[in-house]
Each structure stands twice: as structure tokens, then as C-alpha cells.
Amino acid sequence: MRLSTIVLVALPLLGAAAPTKRGDDKHQPSSSTTSSSSTASSTATVLPSPTPFTIIAAHSASPIHLQAVNAVNQSFFIGVPPSSYCPEPPVTDCPAGTTTTVGVNGKAAFLAVEVPGGQQIFVRRHGALGFTAPHSATLPAGAYTSGFSLIPGTNGGLGDFAFANAAGQGFLACPTTPAGPPYQVFVDVKGFKGNLTACIGFDALTEGATVGAWEYT
């Protein structure tokens, strides 16, 4: 039975299980659909469901131009499919999980998912864009959760997703291999760690969509 609302994790819980350790912020993604390993519960605030959207990177004459931004291994990448999971059974009608969908409420952003508790999007203190594990509100130390915004498209046009606060602003696609792809998504924050000259700044264009997955992993 499909849940009809998208939920946003509001606050971390003391004692909530931490997400599975993935290594450094910049890491190689896996591109297969995986199972969720987190079992802790979390408190969530049910919010009105804004229209979900997908994100498309835009930087003319670059290798990332008009490529999808996807949720993979609790981070975001360009050039690799999303990593999602459906608990089937008991759920019998999960979304396909082949696209990454996002929602914005106020200055907070979250993955547009059906899993109870939702999955919040954040910026790690070193700049990597990430998201919480299913069934957990745990955030990395020093993560930024406020500063996201959406300018919706009009008359069926593309919108614009952005991040800006006192820590920094602007999305970056940084290569994870000598050849370049896949590219990991960062925000240009004051504590950014990486080779900035190798990264590609981009606009995050948005296109309206339906909920993309039960959960992303």
C-alpha cells in the first residue's frame, strides 16, 4: 500500500542508528539497487507534499551538461544511476527507483520518497552533498541543512534548485577518476576539501516529476 505523503525528518534523535560508514566524502559509488541496512526508528514531521522534481546539471560545453544528478551511497553523483530499494514484500507497488526526486520545504530539502520518516538532504561541512539513511535522522557533525531553495519553472519550463548560506553557495561537480566521471556533487563552502580547479560549477535545473523511489541508499 503506497503512502500518499512525503515526510521530512525534522531533528536527529539521540540514540538513532548512524548511517553505514561509506569512507571519505569523495568516494566511488555503486550503481546497483541495494537493500537498506538501517533499522532504527526516528521522529518525523509530516509536511504538505510539494511537487517533487528531478535535477539536471547545466554547464554548457562541459561533460556534465544536461546530465541527471542522482542519489547514490548517501551522496550525489552525475554519471551513475541512483541507488534505491523497495521492501517487496510487504510493499507491492514501489516507484521504479530509476530517477532521483527531490522536494523543498522552506529552506530545507529532502528526497521525495515513500519510506516513513523521509530522507533529509544536507551539505557536509567539507562540502559534499549528502542525504540521511532510511529510518534515521542522524546527520554528520557540522552538516548544513538550511539554505536550500527552489525557483519553480513556469508554463512547463525548467526551475532552479540552489544552496546558499553563510557557509558558501554554488554546486560543483568534482571528478572521482583520472578520466573524470562519475562526478560527485559538492557545494563550494568555506571548508571545502578537494581540487577546486578540477571541479565544474553548474546550475541545478529542475523538472517536475512524481515520487521516484521507496527509499534511496
Oligomer: single chain
Low-confidence stretches: 1-28, 30-48
Tally of extended strands? 16
Instruction: Please compute the radius of gyration using only Cα atoms.
Output: 16 Å
Largest beta-sheet characterization: 8 strands, antiparallel
Helix content range: under 10%
**Which class best fits the helix and strand makeup?**
mainly beta
Mean pLDDT across residues: 82
Order of helices and strands: EEEEEEEEEEEEEEEE
Beta-strand percentage range: 35-45%
Rounded to the nearest angstrom, the distance between the terminal CA atoms is 21 Å
Number of helices: 0
Q: Based on CA inertia axes, which overall geometry fits?
A: globular
Question: Main attributes?
Answer:
217 residues, mainly beta, 8-stranded antiparallel beta sheet, 4-stranded antiparallel beta sheet, 16 strands, globular, disordered N terminus
Structure, briefly:
With 217 residues, the chain is mostly beta strands. Helices cover 0% and strands 38% of the residues. The model is unreliable at 1-28 and 30-48 (pLDDT under 50).
What does this protein structure show overall?
This protein has strands at residues 7-9, 44-46, 53-58, 67-72, 75-78, 84-85, 102-105, 108-111, 119-123, 129-131, 148-151, 159-165, 168-177, 180-189, 200-208, 215-216. By secondary structure, it is mainly beta.
